[in-house]
Amino acid sequence: MNAKAPLAQTVGWTDLDVKAVDTVRVLAADAVEKVGNGHPGTAISLAPVAYLLYQNVLRHDPKDTHWLGRDRFVLSAGHSCLTQYIQLYLGGFGLELEDLQALRTWGSKTPGHPEYKHTAGVEITTGPLGQGLASAVGFAMAQRRERHLLDPDAAPGTSPFDHFTYVIASDGDLQEGVTSEASSIAGTQELGNLVVLWDDNHISIEGDTQIAFTEDVLARYEAYGWHVQFVDWTAGGEYREDVDALHAAIEAAKAVTDKPSFIGIRTLIAWPTPGKTDDHSSHGSKLGSDSIRGLKELLGFDPDQTFEVADDVLAHTRSLADRAAQARAAWQESFDAWAAANPERKALLDRLVAHELPADWESSLPVFPAGKAVATRAASGEVLSAVADALPELWGGSADLAGSNNTTMKGQPSFIPAKRSTHEFAGDEGGRTLHFGIREHGMGAILSGITLHGLTRAYGGTFLQFADYMRGSVRLAALMGVPSVYVWTHDSIGLGEDGPTHQPVEHLTALRAIPGLAVVRPADANETAQAWKAVLEHRDGPVGLILTRQNVPTFPRGEEGFAGAEGVAKGAYVLLEASTGSPEVILIGTGSEVQLAVEAREVLEAAGVPTRVVSAPSLEWFAAQDDEYRESVLPSAVRARVSVEAGIALSWHKIVGDAGRTVSLEHFGASADYQTLYREFGITSEAVVAAAHESIAAARGDAAPSATAATPTATGTGDQQG
């Protein structure tokens, strides 16, 4: 055979291991060929890397993919899904040969990219490049926080809560900016429990990466503060898969406890496939029958068979379960000793594993008195500080906007190496206040990793305008159903003088367009407290809390006709009922504009128009209620409806219906104090009153002028439109 077998003497591989690695290669080729599309090349050349990880390095249990003591593995190069799927099959994690044969087809366990909750053994959905590596930083951060929460005094490496996160990343992952953001944070955090293996094959879809990717990656990671090694399988002019050298590098990486580790591996994509090795055509296309036949002949497989797996190979690889059982037994002994010595922390762990909140935790929520105007961002900050002691699993921070986002729990130390403490923020490796720096996208991915790790709940803050910078991570969190919490403040033109570059206009609608993401925009301080309560009591997906910079009135709950704020959990509720109990028009608002609906109601009621005010902080939560409840809030018989929100109206047309009107902002903002902006742009109670009269007329079928057309301007800011 011309292709030399992997060099794996110190690792202890036998001929069966080598045959198993070659089996991986032909399975990858056959699976893509069968479906007609996919990414075979990387899976073929990374066969020994993935096999080494799954069979020799990772601490995991094929019989229990949720085992608390497991290492985490993240395939950031998610397009090469077969790199993971084949190992899950060989190792006995739940996939069988027919699952590989069903690659990328309807209803299979083997979709085109690994998907969380879809395939046993997959820790995270990695589709867009860079997301996996960035989220893995969150996994590593969560492990450190959990360890300090549960077993802070154990010597390094001796706790049952010590483990590693391993990543396989591609050239494409490292070109995405999100990995740069997260990798920089990882270096600052000195995450010695994170090991990244970079497949340096110089190939992307457009061919040789030298056309777009030429920096010294190893030097870049050294500059981030990582421990860096390089294993070159092309050294000496003859390609040889030196598994021993790679294993030694991994062991060296594990020994470095004060830095994350980065191991570059120089490979040739699709090696040793005839005609396809080191060729970009093998990256994202099937290899073709001739090349596959040549590969099988070269490796000693029957070229006329497909999906050939020898019985002795499968028996050998699935003996992983026996080795895993031994490792788990040793871990269990350590865990049992910890549990016996720490009954209170064991009780906390049990609660965290069950994702349960402590009894009566909600009593720690603050209640805000009426009569004082409070910005909802400030109210949110008070809520976080108030619940800190009751909920030690809750932690988070901001993308360098802590003072503006109000995301710092009072008195809580920062999550940083102690030597990096400043006079503004002091902390240690087990702290609670996160500092993401000005890295919104990396923050979003890290939040997903923290929460997916399993025991804690993380939040991260920035301005709503900058949610655009993290949209890729938010979308992926929604796809996975990860209950991350985003604190997005400065939610409208209400932020004032910073001007249109910082004033979100289309963002509420754009975020509401993401399936699975709940957008929650509370109207006052008590709605903010109830919004946090609802968020923390549910784990069915990510939530964006949309909060004001400017002060807004705190309504007199339970007095003067105002309902309590508990209705926030249902997405929308009747804040003020019509004086007759049967409204002629319904005014619906969110956030800072609910006060305009309240003011408009006074005018309309004085004019003899029975008017209901509905606060609708979350259209997603409201849509999830049953028909009876939704009808009780927005009765279909009342067609006269007005929505008021300082953003584009696209979200509201279905709510207000054919006779409804919208008071909205259909262009960019401007730089001025917020009172001027609301007045100049017509986001006023007077506008709501006028729209109500128009809607009533339209509902009656009377001729009436239409509301201002909800058509965004082509360009220009609010005071200088082009």
Name a few traits of the molecule:
alpha/beta, six-stranded parallel β-sheet, elongated, 26 helices, five-stranded parallel β-sheet, 722 residues, 22 strands
User: What structural class is derived from the secondary structure elements?
Assistant: alpha/beta
* Strand order, largest beta sheet: 11-8-12-13-15-14
The geometry reads as elongated
| Overall pLDDT score | 96
Task: Estimate the helix proportion, in percent.
Answer: 25-40%
Q: What fraction strand?
A: 5-15%
pLDDT under 50 segments (min length 5)? none
Round the Cα radius of gyration to an integer and report it. 29 Å
Main sheet: strands, sense, barrel: 6 strands, parallel
Tally of alpha and pi helices: 26
Q: What would you call the quaternary organization?
A: single chain
Q: Quick one: how many beta strands?
A: 22
| First and last CA, distance | 70 Å
Give structural notes.
With 722 residues, the chain is an alpha/beta fold. It is built from 26 helices and 22 strands. The strands form six sheets. The chain has a six-stranded parallel beta sheet with strand order 11-8-12-13-15-14, with helices on both faces. β17, α21 (594-606) and β18 (611-615) form a beta-alpha-beta unit. The longest helix has 22 residues, at 320-341.
